Amino acid sequence: MKVLIVASECSPVVKVGGLGDVVGSLPKALKKIGIDVRVVIPAYKPVLDILHTWCGGILTRFAVHYAGQPQEVILHQTKLPDTDIPLYLVENEKYISSGGIYLDPSAFASSQEEIERFAFFSKAVVSMFVARDDIFFPDIVHCNDWHTGMISQLIKAEARYIELNRPAAVFTIHNLANQGISEEAVIARLNMPSIFDSNFVKWDLMDHNLDFILQGILGSDVVNTVSQTYSQEIKTPPALSWRGFMILKIPLKQKAKIRIKRPITAS
Questions:
Q1: Residue range 157-172, pLDDT digits in tens
Q2: For the chain, what are the domain ranges?
């Protein structure tokens, strides 16, 4: 089995919070049970500043069309420190690599600029690992939190367009409160018309915004939480207010289709 883990952090390369710890340790656990696992994260400027000290290099360059313009993407390949697990870093000067790890110190999606950054990153990941099979074509794409919430919908849109058997999508919730609410124009900037084939996307846009974490939940094949404890926490106050928001957004007829699975753990 081949698994691609996609996230905004991966310890010890990039770590702001617990997300980085999980993404840094989970691949090692999967590797031990014989899974071909790889990780892809953004190549933030602080990462690029030290990338030359690692045993890695540029794997490929290509263009990703976003907001009506072709953007050069450079894909770097190295390894997670002290492992033989491949680590990919996605570099783009305009959207990804011109700022810090997060544009807001709180790590919350507090600006449209932050949303655009991860919308672009998500499209770049799908362009590299789903629309083509010469780098690494996974059986499962494991997405984490709002930063990668659109990937499941982009996978489906890309697979419909090029008639590929799509990878399955797993979405892990680490922080339900950080939703990643975007203005609706981000859909047009992604430049993938077939994404409008998704009823979930069309319905979400009815209130003139797009909720990235909601799309991750609705678009993925399996949804889980970072821990069993957190799966219970998001069903009780004060997190209940966020869960209530999600329920209000999800049509009643679709609720039965959503199941929170047991968490993926690194133990």
A1: 887 666 667 899 999 9
A2: 2-40+77-87+111-261
Q: What is the rounded CA–CA span in Å between residue 124 and residue 16?
A: 23
Query: What are the angstrom distances between the C-alpha of 168 and each of 104, 113, 129, 141, 143?
Result: 32, 29, 12, 6, 11
Type of residue found at 170: V
Q: What is residue 106's predicted lDDT score, i.e. its pLDDT?
A: 61
**Can you give the pLDDT at residue 160?**
65
- Residue 200 carries which side chain, given as an amino acid letter? F
Q: pLDDT, tens digit, for every residue of 230-260?
A: 888 887 766 555 444 454 444 433 433 444 4
Q: Residue 154: which of 181, 180, 131 has the closest Cα?
A: 131
Entry pTM: 0.88
Judged by DSSP in three states, 260 sits in strand
Whole-angstrom distance, CA of residue 85 vs CA of residue 38:
6
Out of 44-48, 143-147, 242-246, 253-257, pick the least confident: 253-257
CATH code for the structural domain at 2-40+77-87+111-261: 3.40.50.2000
pLDDT for the residue numbered 164:
66
